[in-house]
Amino acid sequence: MIYHSLPPGPGPFRRTVVTVGNFDGVHLGHRSILARVVHRARELDCQPVALTFDPHPAKVLKPESNLRLLTTPAQKIALLSAAGVNVVVLPFTREFAAIPARDFVRDYFVERLKVREVVIGHDYRFGYKRQGTIELLQQMGQTLGFTVQVVWAVEVEDAVVSSSLIRAMLQLGKVREANRLLGRAYGVTGRVVTGKGRGAKILGVPTANLVSDNDLLPSCGIYAVWVIRDGLRLPGVANIGTCPTFDNQELTLEVHLLDFTGDLYGEVLEVEFAARLRDEQRFSSIDELAAQIRADMAEARQVLAAG
Prior knowledge:
By secondary structure, the chain is an alpha/beta fold. Helix content is about 35%, strand content about 30%. It comes from Desulfobacca acetoxidans.
């Protein structure tokens, strides 16, 4: 179940195992915590709950940081739900941020969620000025009747999995490496809009121009992708960039679906990035560009077939 608020008073929960966090990306580290929540809830005959926030606290408290999130709110909720937990999304405001950590524990964990156990990441802080610590939770748990489990960091190839590391990898175009930390392919959603028509008219390769809902696109380049349309995963090639051969200025996301014919205008698609094929570059002629596109399509087929 998904709840977009948690007002005071009798609520939907009888007894819970709870985790709390921003969960941007719902990466392998997050999924380790969520798996522990589900496991402990089953052992304790409780309801598993993930408590998160919208918008992301940094968007409210540090808007100048221009934090580029890995997931839209809808993507995050879907990924959390798929992990088997009830999702509670609390509206985050400056007033909410001013709640002292002790009050947050009493008001939300104890009174509204009826918490039996809190499962928390090893470095999580919460409450006003991040004054809430694991030690505080453990002390309050002894008094208020809940236990605390700490889940330590997940490492992949000696790198600690974190949302910030994944963002950095995507900004370098390292989508394979980012995908390993996510435990899935990085995906963005967007609606297909009318483009300039060069793909079909000039190059003979029709493309879907997407206006992405996501904050973060991988760096400019050509990618082998999977495109989710009506629940089906279709192979494709994506270009992120400005199409320098045509002297464009605007950054665009264009996708060509391999072996597909049809009208995609107005549809909402999800694009999953499997591998980066090359940098975007300027070509001396349309024929040279068209030949490279055909080579990109052939390489994408090989990459996607290999999995």
